[in-house]
Amino acid sequence: MALMAALPAMAQYPGTLTKTDKNKPELRSIAVLEWTGEAGKPKASRLVPVAVFDGSELEDGSIYLARPEPLAVDADVEYELMRDGRPIGLYDIKNAGQEQGSWVGYGAWKPMPSVKPATHEWTPPKIEDNGDEGDRPILHRKQHGDGKEQGGGKEPPPDPDRPTLHRTDDGGKNGGSAPAQDPDRPTLHESNPTSAGAPDPDRPTLKRGKNNAQGDVPYEESVAGATDPNRPHLIRGKANADTMDVSPSLMGLPAEMEQVVAVSDARNRPPHPWNYSWANPGDEARMKSDLEEIARKALGLTAPPAPKPAPAPKNQRRGHARTAKATPPPPPQPKPLEDEQFRVFELAYGEGATMVLTAHTAGPLADEKFVTLIAQPDLYGNVLVLFKHVTNGSQLDYSPRMKLIDAVDAMADNRGELLFELREKTQRQFALYRVARGEAERIFLGGGGAYGAVNSE
I want to staple 70 with a disulfide (CB 3.0 to 4.6 A). Which of 38, 66, 266, 434 is the partner? Predict the structure, then answer.
């Protein structure tokens, strides 16, 4: 108890200076935008919060600072939509709601602002050269009473904009005459209550209410008879849809639904593309083929070996004409992988390739098998599997299938993490995996909620 009581006193010690890191982000929110229809003009959309990075830890974005909606889907929060680390649009949150117990945000998809090129080039102003005497100031001497100027010279013409002073009329005491009356000079008149002069149209007037026989009764006017066109009106029923341009909400997990990463940060950061450029284009095809073979073995889709040709009969005579040699049957084709997705990332500047392959078998959901592979090339150019996850449709409740969303810099450290959606039969979550030092480690799990039964693909 003494230690806890001493902590506030130490924090308020005036001689202690707290250093703050200028590069430390205030808050960074990671979400997933889901929509159906055309990208940029969706038929229905929603934004699912995943995680919020507070500068030290990743918090669950679906409950972080909820009041009641979480901060990640608060109104007027803007997200930058990214695909492979490149921005493809903006999504402005207008309102939020709960879908089957999970908070989601609704808003509008906007295009990225484009920088307009300059329409014309700037040209310096043209300066006319009138000689040395053009910009030189000229001094004029004061004229004396005898009409002569000191030093000679002619009197300059009078300046029409120069103010002139006139003497006041003193009744002839000083021998002066009264100047002409200035028409713009204000004049004070004594008020005459009995005069019936015309009212000044520019004078402000306070509008009073109507009088009646009961004395001090406030003026009342019905709303229906109000004459002010700017007077607000209260209308019952649904609000006007023109006041909020929001796409319709997306319900469930339809098969045609698309997903993209959304990032909201208090600071503007340059884009960080995650695509990897192979030094030899043939390496990518070879790596993909090797990963597909590993995935088929994990799913039980390995083709059986080709049958050996049948031996010739022993009772065949030597002198008999030889029959044509039978051609061996072609090798069986490998079984196809359903919904195969193969992506290659460079998760940090200067690092090698990180490959992700996801696929599943055909058939009803109960008989389907799903596989997810994370691999890197080893020192000898072979495939090194860092992570392998295999499940089937009957085990999704405790071993969900993994669907890759994209790579994202979740902690603003210029290093990408792999964002996966973990789908169960009736619920789902989102997970972030960090690949480093030859391992793939899960660093975050949260968000999602219940969205009903997963549609069979």
Answer: 66
| Beta-bridge partner residues of 37 | 42
Contact indicator for 39, 88 with CB cutoff of 8 Å: yes
d(CA 454, CA 252): 8
DSSP for 36-103 reads: EEETTEEEEEEEEEEEEE-SSSEEETTTTT-SSS-GGG-TT-EEEEEETTEEEEEEEEEEEEEETTEE
Which domains are seen in the chain, by residue range?
A: 24-112+245-265 (no CATH), 281-302+333-450 (2.40.128)
Q: What is the pLDDT of residues 103-137, one digit of tens each?
A: 999 999 999 988 766 666 666 766 665 555 555 66
Phi, psi of 367 (to 5 degrees): -105, 0
How far, in Å, CA of 379 to CA of 278, rounded?
A: 15
- Residue 368 neighbours by CB distance under 10 Å: 20
Tens of pLDDT, residue by residue over 211-267, are 444 444 444 444 445 455 555 544 444 444 444 556 677 888 898 999 999 999 988
What contacts 119, CB < 8 A, 6 or more positions away?
A: none
Q: Collapsing DSSP states into helix, strand and coil, what is residue 163? A: coil
Tokens at residue 242, please?
């023109």
Dihedral angle over CA of 151, 156, 161, 167, nearest 10 = 70
Nearest-angstrom CA–CA distance, 343 and 430: 19
Mean pLDDT of 439-446: 94
Between the alpha carbon of residue 439 and those of residues 39, 172, 294, 375, 380, the distances in Å are 35, 111, 18, 9, 18
Report how far Cα 67 is from the mean position of its chain's Cα atoms.
Answer: 22
- Could you give the CA distance from residue 65 to residue 369 in angstroms, rounded to a whole number? 39
Report the distance separating Cα 103 and Cα 61, nearest Å.
9
Q: Which residues does residue 422 pair with via DSSP β-bridges, in sequence order?
A: 402, 429
State both tokens at 361.
């078998």
417-423, strands of its sheet edge to edge = 401-408, 417-423, 427-436, 439-450
Q: Rounded to an integer, what distance in angstroms lies between the CA atom of residue 48 and that of residue 96?
A: 10
